Amino acid sequence: MVISLFLFPSTPSLFINAMSIFNLLALITSGYMEMIGKNKQYAKFCDASDSNKQKDKEKCKLPSRIGMLMFYTPSFLVGLVSFAFFPHQDPRFVMVISVLTIHFFKRILEVLFVHKFSGYMMLNVSITISLSYGVSIATMIYAQYLSQESSEPAFDLKYVGLGMFLIGISGNFYHHYILSSLRKKADREYKIPKGGLFHFVICPHYMFEIVEFVGVSCICQTGFSFCFTLGTVFLLMGRSYATRKWYVSKFGGRFGKDIKALIPYLF
């Protein structure tokens, strides 16, 4: 098979193989749920006022900044611990741990110093996403560790992947900065984003995140990383579709009809 030229051979680990399938299906399902309007309750999609269970929800909500820190901190710690837990590994393995740790460290810094938050999120959502990220990243690192016992793929993509990762993380940060600059300190209202690729798509930060994780997959070249990235693509497609729909419903004719969700001119 052609794919075998680009990936390490499948590991004999039942856990890794099961997690690859589970992760892919779970992320595709999450993307589909986003697309049909059953959105994860955080950011602009968190609104407890519509429900009769408002009082219960009030007890289970977190400030958005705290919730977002809960999203990313465990995965960052997984990356840090991996350097100590798997010392003296080959360059590819060190590169995998490094880019994953950098990704989540950058997210934490953005939460602390870049993003401007005005709302809250539900505690159960924060816990679920935090666990999902943490388990996925730990599994990706473990799958990479097991792959070192196999022969290298015919095509070495790790430096191509590093280039894509750097492009993705830079583009993602740039568009996050644009979003944060739309709000003044006490401003709690959403605005139509302008600048960068926001002229073409409403979620260029998601587009660059996909580029980033495609880069991670090229560095890893394992079946699990490929499944995780493919699932992430479906999830972000669903979330970006829901985001565009939200902006259209909120701003109506003021929102440019030619602005797509994720991919300029296409989707």
UniProtKB/TrEMBL annotation:
The keyword Membrane applies. The chain crosses the membrane at residues 14-33, 66-86, 92-109, 121-145, 157-179, 214-237. Its main location: membrane. Residues 143-267 form the 3-oxo-5-alpha-steroid 4-dehydrogenase C-terminal domain. One of its GO terms (molecular function) is oxidoreductase activity, acting on the CH-CH group of donors. It comes from the Eukaryota. InterPro entries: 3-oxo-5_a-steroid_4-DH_C (IPR001104), SRD5A/TECR (IPR039357). GO terms for biological process: lipid metabolic process. It is found in: Membrane. Keywords: Membrane, Transmembrane, Transmembrane helix. It is a multi-pass membrane protein. Pfam families: Steroid_dh. One of its GO terms (cellular component) is membrane. Belongs to the steroid 5-alpha reductase family. This is 3-oxo-5-alpha-steroid 4-dehydrogenase C-terminal domain-containing protein. It comes from Lactuca virosa.
